[in-house]
């Protein structure tokens, strides 16, 4: 565990993998976080949890709603983001605390970012309805 007050240079010099977890994904199973860490260790690439996009996404141009975007090529970033030690050492500064921004920054800097599909309970909470959905997903038999 590392808190945000730890200097990035200290993390980079420590030669350790960094696992960033979004607290708005509170029910992400520890086994999934471990699987992401294992994948990053094996591949040497950053690994991020994702969920499929289920909403309809439209193109908007010049104030007009246009074509529907094919959801097959879209993912929603969830948690965690695992950054292998070699990638951590190559970064000049701490990644954004927003995982989607951190993923974009890693990719823009030329680092490969692999995705692993997170289980349904790994979804991000953005509303009271999301809390109810997570409660239903994790309630167990009953």
From TrEMBL:
SUPFAM superfamilies xrefs: Nucleotide-diphospho-sugar transferases
UniProt keywords, alphabetically: Nucleotidyltransferase, Transferase
Superkingdom as given in the UniProt entry: Bacteria
Keyword Transferase: yes
A GO molecular function held by the record: nucleotidyltransferase activity
Protein name: 2-C-methyl-D-erythritol 4-phosphate cytidylyltransferase
Organism whose genome encodes this protein: Nocardioides astragali
């Amino acid at each position: 565990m590392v808190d945000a007050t730890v200097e990035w240079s200290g993390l980079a010099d420590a030669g350790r993998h960094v696992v960033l977890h979004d607290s708005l994904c509170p029910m992400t199973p520890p086994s999934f976080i471990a699987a992401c860490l294992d994948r990053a260790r094996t591949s040497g690439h950053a690994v991020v949890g994702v969920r499929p996009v289920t909403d309809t996404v439209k193109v908007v141009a010049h104030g007009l709603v246009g074509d529907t975007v094919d959801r097959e090529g879209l993912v929603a970033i969830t948690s965690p983001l695992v950054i292998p030690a070699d990638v951590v050492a190559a970064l000049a500064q701490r990644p954004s605390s927003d995982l989607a921004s951190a993923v974009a920054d890693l990719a823009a800097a030329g680092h490969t970012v692999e995705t692993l599909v997170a289980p349904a309970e790994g979804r991000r909470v953005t509303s009271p309805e999301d809390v109810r959905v997570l409660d239903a997903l994790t309630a167990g038999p009953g």
